[in-house]
Amino acid sequence: MSLTHRSLFPLVPQADPAQEARQLHTEGGLVPVRLPGDVAAWAAVDHTTAQLVLGHPDLTKDAAYWPDLASGRVPDHWELIAVIRGAGMLHAGGDDHRRLRKLASSAFTRAPIAALEGRITEIAGQLLDDLAAADPREPVDLRDRFAYRLPVRVICEVLGVPDTAVSGLRDAFERLVTPQEDGAEDIRVAQAEIHRSLTALIATKRAAPGDDLTSALIQARDDGDRLSEEELVETLFLILIAGHETTLNLISSAVHALLEHPEKLAHVREAARGGSGGGTCPYAHGGGRGVRTDAGADDGSADTDAEADDTGVKADDTGVKADDMDTGMDTDIADPDDGIWTALVDETLRFSSPVRHALMRYAVEDVDIAGVRVARGEPVLAGLFAAGRDPGRHTEPDVFDPARPTRRDHLAFGHGAHYCLGARLARLEARIALAALFTRYPDLEAAGTPERLASISVQGVRALPVRLNAGR
Ligand code: HEM
């Protein structure tokens, strides 16, 4: 049955994603939805179906397969741009994707990320010192002052670019991720501004290379002619934006969830004061059935992708090594701090997926998914937030409980060939950020009700006003 002949569930950026997820779950695994701009699509909303969609061999991220886009029937709508068009490897398929990902992936494997731990801890400490200088009677926006600044500094250091590469473009980045209702033109202006800055930055790095990822990417292009100038800009752009917009929402959503769950906050305060912060805390039991040691399917149902013949965990023709693609879960289990902070990060990823819907896929052939026929060319979204709230997967999914055994059973970093390249870095940053924050300010409390971000692609709060209550 054609998508256009079904009644469509409207996905509304301003809607409460938890409420939306509850309603979607009553409609089935693959639900016909209407996106902003009045575009019809499918959304996979339970865990199994979302995982299947993310790795399905008959779904591609190449928008050329979407006839409505090619024929101009899709409106140039601001919200749609976020899930349809994008940069570099995230929207590439097949060999292009493998090549682009391979070039960037060496910086995100276990050893280089582990080596960043000390530096991330230092940056977190500096940012928390800066907060101490604020008037203690005034609320502080923790999202802006801490959750945002930490990943920005880290990713800029990894790329070897000045902080201003992001902070100077902050408005432009924010307009891209959560644009206002003033249309697609706004996004194009933001994109052009970012591209201009990155082109200038590449020229500077080319003249004076350093020991950093930007120089390595330039080198890879110049040596083997593998990255075009545009691909280079797109790759930098993707790593910069993915490197901070999502992690900032992970950190702020973790704090927000705790502030809304006083009994969990009490556990965290106790851990921060030395009560149960190490491996002996009540949460340190390994995380249940979601614990995986690779990025592949844990049920064998989704072990292929449109762009890869395998899960991406083998070092074969995908060009993607197991270490590039794994979830980082094994690292965390071996981590002496497999305690409250790691549990908190995992449960936040499940409870409050920073990516609300993963980017669009398109059917390359007619395909049956969750008992539904998706016709060739039809677009399909994976609802990562809804998957985390799947009642078939998690008991009382709307309860935030870092002790739940299924807390690692989420798709917040995607699945398959496009599995998040920065997952290990994001997890490390969030764990360090939360431990440092609550150790320093265990008595911090909410100072107002945060407003939700209105977006179908990202999920979190616009601001997180808190009182730090230092030295209470
Ligand atoms: C891809 C989530 C942090 C770099 C993805 C995808 C998701 C995701 C869901 C797959 C999208 C899809 O299949 O449509 C997250 C979350 C993060 C985070 C929740 C933080 C909490 C990061 C960081 C970096 C990063 C810190 C880099 C420094 C990337 C890249 C891709 C990606 C390069 C594209 C991979 C590919 O297409 O092969 N991320 N991400 N992400 N992420 Fe992340």
Key words describing this protein structure:
alpha+beta, binds protoporphyrin IX containing FE, 11 strands, Cytochrome p450, three-stranded antiparallel β-sheet, 472 residues
Give the arrangement of secondary structure elements.
Layout: E1 9-10, H1 17-27, E2 30-35, E3 39-44, H2 47-54, E4 59-60, H3 67-70, H4 78-84, H5 94-105, H6 110-114, H7 117-132, E5 140-141, H8 142-159, H9 164-167, H10 170-177, H11 184-207, H12 213-224, H13 229-260, H14 262-272, H15 322-325, H16 329-334, H17 340-351, E6 361-363, E7 367-369, E8 372-374, E9 379-382, H18 384-388, H19 423-440, E10 445-446, E11 465-467
Parallel strand pairs: 1-2, 3-9
Antiparallel strand pairs: 2-3, 4-6, 5-11, 6-9, 7-8, 10-11
Helix pairs in contact: 7-8, 7-19, 8-13, 10-11, 11-13, 13-17, 13-19, 14-19, 17-19
Bound molecules: protoporphyrin IX containing FE (HEM).
The site of protoporphyrin IX containing FE has 26 residues, from α13 and α19.
